[in-house]
Amino acid sequence: MNYLVVDIGNTNIVIAVFDGKKIKKKWRISSFLNRTKDEYILWLKYITDQNFTFKDIIIGSVVPDITQELKAALNNFFKIKPCVIAEDIKVNFPTELEVPSEIGTDRIVNALCAWRLYNQPAVIIDFGTATTFDVVGQKGVYLGGVIAPGVNLSINALHSAAARLPRIAITKQEEVIGKNTVSAMSSGIYWGYIGLIKNILHKIKSELNYKMLVLATGGLSDLFINEVSEDIIVNKDLTITGLFIAYEEGNFKLTLKKKIITVKIKFIFYH
To answer: Is 49 left (phi over 0), alpha (psi -120 to 50) or beta?
Structure first.
């Protein structure tokens, strides 16, 4: 049986078809706040052309304004009420945060997925709109993390704030010293982020003082990771898989709870 899983981020929306725990198909579209329900339906027609039918639809989102339109479109098109992670189903993963509700769905499901798949302490680097570092401790608890400006956010900030600096595409730089404006900007972003990643990883490991797995996800992970360390595992499906795991675990608990309530009602009725 197939499940449609939708990850709504600030930059992109990722959609995947799961058969069991395996991804059969995946698409990506840009996140656009003004997109209407009808526009989403036109896009959803493409998915139905692939001859998929779905038992359930799962949504994870950090953009509430997009969530409502897309949720309505999915419900209208497939006649299935989508299940929103962190709203309809809570993520079953302990944290040491002062305010647990502040953490984004993407970050907590990344932590959940990392622990379920690898079962060891980990730092998860997510190259999204922000570059985030999320830390899972030895006992499988989310300890906290680090939020830094994302790569493209930094590029756009340079372009917007300085009239003569162009908008650039980030690429790997072999040399640090740029010979023109574009190569100097590219070098600053590329080597600057490598320095940021290395230093934050060093600080996290020093603070905890035990061996940790390092995972990377997000569209730009391949660009930086090899320069940082060869020991980093790239898993670009971490978030979308984490949403499905959160759904499976939460749905099992809900089903079990309903069965217990039914048994109790029957017991009361017959006694």
So the answer is: alpha
Closest residue by Cα to residue 126 from 192, 224, 31: 224
Average pLDDT per block of 10 residues along the chain, 271 residues long: 93 92 91 86 84 93 92 93 95 95 95 97 95 97 96 87 82 90 91 95 96 93 86 95 96 52 47 54
CB under 8 Å to 238, separation ≥6 — which residues? 110, 113, 114, 124, 126, 215, 217
Vertex 137: Cα angle to 241 and 134 (nearest 5)? 55
Residue labelled with tokens 């647990």: 100
Please state, in angstroms and rounded to a whole number, the distance separating the CA atoms of residues 190 and 223.
9
Angstrom distance (rounded) from CA 149 to CA 98: 22
In this structure, what token pair is assigned to residue 179?
A: 């010979």
| Packed helices 181-208 and 221-228: angle between N→C axes, nearest 10 degrees | 60
What tokens does 204 get?
């996290």
Which H or E run contains 8? Answer: strand 2-8
User: What are the structural domains of the chain?
Assistant: 1-93+240-271 (3.30.420.40), 120-236 (3.30.420.40)
Residue 117 CA, distance from chain mean position: 15
What are the catalytic residues? 106
* Alpha helix ranges (H) inside the chain: 37-48, 64-78, 105-118, 151-161, 181-208, 221-228, 238-270
Helix axes of 105-118 and 238-270: crossing angle, nearest 10 degrees:
90
Q: How far is CA 68 from CA 4, 37, 63, in A?
A: 17, 9, 9
The pTM of this model reads 0.88
